[in-house]
Write a structure and sequence with these properties.
Elements: H1 15-25, E1 31-36, E2 39-44, E3 47-53, E4 56-60, H2 65-68, E5 74-76, E6 87-90, H3 98-112
Antiparallel strand pairs: 1-2, 2-3, 3-4, 4-6, 5-6
Helix pairs in contact: 1-3
Length: about 120
């Protein structure tokens, strides 16, 4: 069984997607941006909420990740060889429009607001 795919050390985080997520989250209270996962993540009330890793949107959905995986543009979030439960990564085609991106980010915010504040 093959191990996790190795990514190039030169792989970079998509700066346009990062900026688009910033715009969507602008004005959301208690959000902090940090470098995380080798990309950029936004924390809400101390909990990681959403991020950008390479060209992918990383979405924290909790139990809703199972339903999201039915979308052909969604994959399990797996950068270590072990998928993270409750998380998915969305291909650029799955968040190409501002409405699509806003929907993903709003789903993440809604889930993370159910978590205890850290």
């Amino acid at each position: 069984m093959p191990g996790p795919r190795k990514t190039s050390a030169k792989a970079t985080t998509d700066p346009q997607l990062v900026e688009r997520v910033r715009v969507v989250l602008n004005g959301t209270r208690s959000v902090v941006e940090k470098k995380l996962f080798g990309g950029v993540a936004w924390l809400l009330n101390g909990n990681v909420c959403v991020g950008v890793w390479q060209r992918w949107l990383i979405a924290r959905l909790g139990g809703d990740d199972v339903a999201a995986l039915r979308d052909p543009n969604v994959r399990p979030f797996d950068i270590t060889g072990k998928p993270m439960r409750g998380w998915v990564k969305v291909e650029p085609a799955g968040c190409a429009t501002d409405d699509e991106l806003r929907d993903w980010v709003q789903q993440c915010v809604a889930f993370v607001r159910t978590l205890p504040v850290k």
